[in-house]
Amino acid sequence: MFYPGAAGVQFLTQYGQAGLKDHIPLYTVFTIDETTLPLQKDLAVGVPGAQEWVNDLPVAANVKFVASYRAKYHRPPSFYGAQAYDAAGLINSAVEAVDGDLTKKEAIRDAMRKANYASVRGSYRYGNNHFPIESFYLQETIKQPDGSYGLRTVATILKDSQDSFHDKCPMKW
Description:
34% of the residues lie in helices and 18% in strands. By secondary structure, the protein is of the alpha+beta class. β3 and β4 form a beta hairpin. The radius of gyration is 18 Å and the shape is globular.
């Protein structure tokens, strides 16, 4: 199931109200996250999901990002925050690579293609069609001892996964 935001909250609520949770497995992507968990609560517990980033990834950049975010905002970051943080890091790495000379557009593009920065999702690279070649993780919703809800990484589902249509793409580096 893919229902980000309010639609995901509504679907999961209706799924629970219909009594389906105990009878029909539900698998999600971008439906249960730190922005929706405060409303989904127990309905989300036990529902697996897949993502390219989860709070508890043991990557140095991620540990620092999550701790800084929690300290500033007093809640865990969502994958939206992680993606924005990574985007800023990627752009910054390209600007640094050209010593701030933004007129060097080709050099900026070349630097961005290298993805040479500390990503919160770990190392990744771009394929020939400019889609990331990255890992995906199985996550589960857990209820913390303090009564709050969070996501926990269960396993790496795909390691360095590339989309299956890359070989049909005519793009060239």
